[in-house]
Amino acid sequence: MAINSLASALTISNAGTASSNTHSKVGYKLSSQEMNKLSGREVEPAQKEEVSSELPAHIRKMVEQLEKLKEQLELAKEQLAKLQALKNQEDEAVKVQVETQTKMVMEIQTQIMSLSQSISDALKEAGISDPGVLMSVLV
Fold this sequence. Notes:
Layout: H1 2-24, H2 32-39, H3 45-54, H4 57-85, H5 92-125, H6 131-138
Helix pairs in contact: 4-5
Coiled coil: 59-93
Keywords: Coiled coil
Region (Disordered): 36-55
């Protein structure tokens, strides 16, 4: 009996040590900026300017508009989050504001998708088929 209790005590003790060892050996976690850079979603500003300068003027204007829409989307999402964080969600005025802001966010997202497709089509018409250019313009 004494051996069994000693064996179980050692097993419990070893299990606790093993789990604490695994918790202390946490690997390096990439930041979102590092992940974007590695995946190619983040383009260096100089490289992005170089790609933009090679594009036809009408496509550059479309890309500028896309960037403005993305900024508007971020602002609209922030505003929606603030409205949703309000404590008086039962108030009719707040409900209407949340609904209106949600519709605005969806409309901007639709505009972004439509403009992205138009940019893609314009690049094809201009004979630009390099996937790197396409990604740097649309992301």
